[in-house]
Amino acid sequence: MAEQYQLPKPYLPPMPIPPGQTIKEVIEARGMSQLELSRSMVKPEQAIIEIINARKVITKETANQLERVLGLPSYFWLNLERNYHAVLASDRG
Question: How many domains does the chain have?
Answer without folding.
Answer: 1
